[in-house]
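Handout, section 4.2: multi-component inputs.
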Amino acid sequence: MPDWLTHSLVGWITGKTIKLEIGLVAIGSLIPDISKLNLLFDWLLGIKLETFFLPIHTPLGALLIAYVIAFFFQEMKKALIPLSVGIATHFILDLLLLNVSGGMPLLFPLSWDEWQLNFIRSDDYTMTIIAIVAAVVVYFFYFIYEKRKLKQNKYL
Amino acid sequence: MFYCFQEHEKNDPQIKKYKLLFNDSENYNNTVISFLAKIITVDKTNQTLYVFIQEEPYTYPSVKVNAGNLDIQNLKKGDLIDIIGIFDGKNQMIATKIWLNEPWKIDLIYLRSLPAIPFVLYLFLRTWKFNTTAWRFERRKKNA
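Output:
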């Protein structure tokens, strides 16, 4: 997995650029990694539950979690869309990884086949640096854009 | 989740592959294999490693790895490594790539993940608040 900072920054960039609810896209971008709860069980109790939590790190599992979260919003559909976009950004980033133990079972439970593109190892922080630089660029772009827009409106 | 927990060993493609390789090694020579492994011994003179495949919670026999021209000078007993190579007969392989999994790099992933928690909470909570009566998230007034 890329780290959560990379996932959340890419979620933020996506939400900002396609004008979706940023907070929900960012939350969605971390939903599949709820499966990392297995690490807590391992560290605290020494119980290996990786395979139990694995379905959460699949598109179907993550979407079901998003559906449950969206249930706590008045307009469920409006919440579900940005959450799903966030989930999509997560899987796109994870797909870039090279993992010798296999990729992601994207079609689980229909198929156990695993996919990955083998571009970058998860402990490589290049992706984090790229995400930080991209987020800074997007931030300043919108900062300048909104300032200009405000100025134009003032003169009108 | 229970389905995955119970059926994983039977269906996981990587585990299926390991089983075939170790139980019917004669028929799977020259198959590309990759795995996470723990080093048992390093023979730097003969460019050979003995490793255990680390696919927790499953266990596999040890594998003799011929490292060929790869640099194994910095490897030592107990190190965790990622290996890609070609299966070469009973419990041995020729490595084409080896990466050392340095513990500090793994810790750094968790460390880099920590700032994401307040960041995402800030992004979310600046727009939404939880209404404990209605049990719903509601938009904050300035964002309504």
